C-alpha cells in the first residue's frame, strides 16, 4: 500500500518521488529514464554529461585549447552534447511515463549557455529544470522562454523570497515546485549561509513551514515543496504527508538511488556505499566554489585537511613580527618566531614547498603535491563560474580572473569528479554522498549484496521502508 498520492508536477500527475540530480555522471539518461518509467520524476544531470561513440563507449572529455577561455568553450560544447544525449536516452526509456527534469548548477561554468543549448536541442523532451548552487535569478526567464517548468533549489524561506521578488514572480505560472534542500544533510554542495552554524543542524520542519507560509503569501498554495536531503524511509516523514501546514509535498532521493542497477556509478563505488558508518560523511568547505559540501571522509579529504593544517602567516620581508627566517624550496620567508619550530618540522618531514594563499599565508606541501596542484591550476577549463582554486572567472569584464590569487588549499573539482565517476580510485577522489548514506549498511532491502532496479526501489519506498 502506497503512503503517497500522486500530485501535479511539471504539468502531469505523477508519484511525488523525485530522483536527485546530483553531479557529474552520477545521474544520467538510464537512471532518470527508469525513475520516470516507475511513475516519478527522473532527473538527468547536465553537469558535464557523458556522450558516447558509435560503439557505446564514453567519449573522454579531452581539452585542446591553449587558453582557459578556449577550454571553457570546449567544456560548454561537451556539456550541451552530453546533456542532449542523456535526455534523449531518458525520454526513450520513460516511454511517456512520469516526468523528466534536467539538473544544472547555477555556479557551474557556462550554466546559462548549457541550459539554453540543451533545452533548444532537446525541445519537447524536458519537462522541468532543477537548479541550485547559487541564486539562479535567470532560471525562470530561461525556463519560460523554452516553455518548461522550473524548480529552484533553496535552503531557506529567505532565499526563495529574494528569488521570487526579484525575478520569479514575472514567470510564476512556470514555477513547478520549490526544492528545499537540507543544508546539513544533503550530499554535494550545501546552501549554508554565513549566519548558520555548520556544526549545529536545524530541524527542517519549521524551516519548511516558514517556506510554505511565505509561498502562500505569494499565492503559491498549490505549488509543491520537494523535501531533499536526509530522506531515506518515508515512515520517518509521516507528519509531513497530508499536512495542511506543509501543503503538497514530494520527496527527493539523491543518495539511495546510487545503489540501483541503473545507477551509472562504478560497481566498486556501489560496494563502498554498503560499508559506510554513521559519521563517515564530512561537511567541509574545501570546494573551489566556496560553498560547504558533504562527501565521504576519505583519504582525499583528509589530505586537504592536513594541507590546511600545515599553514602559517608569513612575510617576504623581515619585520618585528616576522623575524624568524625559514627556507622553503629555493625561497626564503619570514614567519612569527613561535611558528618557526612547527614550520621547520613540516619541512623536515618532506613538506618543503611553500605555496602562497590569497589570505597571506603559506601552506606546505611535498614537491610532487606542489607540482600536481600547479598543473591542475594551469589546465583549468573553467568548469565553474568562478573558481577559488585556479582564480578563473567566466566574467570577461574581470578579464576572466577572480582578482584573487589561486588557492592551493582547494582542488580541481571537475577533474576529481570525472575521475571517480569513470572508475577512478575511491580514496583519492571526491566522493559526494548525503549524510544518511550509512543506512545502506543496515537497510534490510540492501542486505546480502542485493542491488535493486529503480522500479524495485521506488516500490519499496512507497511502502514506507
Task: Walk me through the structure.
There is one protein chain. The chain has 465 residues and is an alpha/beta fold. It has two domains: 7-264 and 443-462, Aldolase class I (TIM Barrel, Alpha-Beta Barrel); 299-421, no CATH class. It contains twelve helices and 18 strands. It has an eight-stranded parallel beta sheet. A three-stranded antiparallel beta sheet has the order 9-13-12, with no helix packed on it. A hairpin with a 2-residue loop joins strand 1 and strand 2 (12-14). It is globular and about 70 Å long. The relative contact order is 0.13. The mean pLDDT is 94.
Spell the H/E element sequence.
EEEHEHEHEHEHEEHEEHEEHEEEHEEHHH
Shape type: globular
On the 0 to 100 scale, the average pLDDT is 94
Biggest sheet, open or closed, and with what strands and sense? 8 strands, parallel
How much of the polypeptide forms β-strand, as a percent range?
Answer: 15-25%
**What would you call the quaternary organization?**
single chain
Number of strands: 18
CATH topology of the largest domain: TIM Barrel
Low-confidence stretches: none
Q: Which class do the helix and strand fractions yield? A: alpha/beta
Rg (C-alpha, Å): 23 Å
Q: Kindly provide the name of the CATH class of the largest domain.
A: Alpha Beta
Widest beta sheet: strand line-up: 3-11-10-8-7-6-5-4
Distance between the termini: 11 Å
Helix content class: 25-40%
Number of helices: 12
> Architecture of the largest domain, according to CATH?
Alpha-Beta Barrel
The CATH superfamily of the largest domain bears the name Aldolase class I
